[in-house]
Design goal:
474 residues, mainly alpha, two-stranded antiparallel sheet, globular
Length: 474
Amino acid sequence: MRKSVPILAGLAVLLAMVAWAGLAAKAQPAGAVQAPNVAKAKEFRIERSMSKQALACIECHKLESPGIFADWAHSRHASANITCLDCHQAEEFDPDVSQAHYKQYERGDNKWGAKEYRVPVTAVVTPKDCSRCHPDEAKQYSVSKHANTIEIMWKIDPWLNAGQNSDFERQAGCFHCHGTVLAIKNGKLDPATWPNVGVGRLNLDGSKGSCASCHTRHKFSVAEARQPDTCGQCHLGPDHPQIEIWNESKHGAIYRSEYTQWNFNSAPGTWTAGVDYRTPTCAACHMSGSGSVRTTHDVTERLAWEAQAPLTVRPNEFQAFPATTDWKAEREKMKQVCLACHGQQWVDDHFTKYDGVIANYNDNYYKPALAKLEELYQKGLMDPKGFFRQPLFTEFYELWHHEGRRARFGAAMMAPDYAWWHGFYECKKRYVKFMQEADHLIKTGEKAYIAPVLPGATGDTTRPPQIFGKPAAK
């Protein structure tokens, strides 16, 4: 009797399964084939507590802006129960509070647009907001050249100081990467300054920069920030083609062959050469942790030279924004990053060669050209305030700003075509042309040509008082 009970129970289960299969088959349309592993839309389930206002934001944006919702739902923020309000909530008195958003709580066609969910929000999420959870990263970023690039730009850029490009040219070009000084106009963010996610954007709360420059909204992916194309959005072109240079290098070639097999999603501070990736991207060399070298959001670190400056100097000697770091200690950090994959002699010899390239550029190209330019100014043959209205000034400018940078960057990042053909070869052509015209003017006493009009030379030359303070009264 004891043996018959499980047998009878098993028969009953079997009969039930057969009957269920028959009913399921009848429910299918004639000729229909049930596809295995049918993909399902990802659902966001509230499994941990959050305020009703936060829930309303999620559910409303799920309908109104599904792309934003999808990015957030797949992010680490969502996994950690960090909602829209954790980043976007503001105080009623904050200058960047969206007045238009309050109208969303008066809608009748969306149950989440009700007064009970009303909360002040701002579209602008700043490093100060992010610092509530990421204090170290925000502090490191605040002292970097990225965060302070508006100040640097205004101190050294003749385009801005001489007003030789228009406000729209600046907005669409320079400020897109460098950042704007955000402003409110007629109760809304001024379209002349917004939208903008430039690395040096000055926010209305006083903080500088935008974390979304590299960790784009609303996924804020660490994997994305580790990809070279993220840096290549701004670091490209004739004057600073770091992405093109890196692509030419062995590092870039290996990356393109193998990157699909690498792990870009490892937790911050744990991304490891030889384990997660085989060859570095921009972030691996300049920001990510490696061995004893800790992760940093200050891209000023690990630099022994200011290779983007007209005359290459040590970072602490860069007058527009002198670093507080010791270049010898930072050079050692960069060497430690290299040693994760290379031998000591290889690393030492690379930097010896790079230092030689710097001296070659400084002594043989920039210094003699600068001396000649100053002689032209001294003899009244060029207008020191004419800038790009004078073709001869443009020749000098591009010698350091274009070819000179390419030569130095190409050597630093091991791209021989950029170091020579795009770099020093072009430096020679530019140098000879500049010197030929300069010597001709000095010999004849003829003044350099200066164009009566430079198109679009209408930009405001007032330095942002929010950064430099109000100009002294005359």
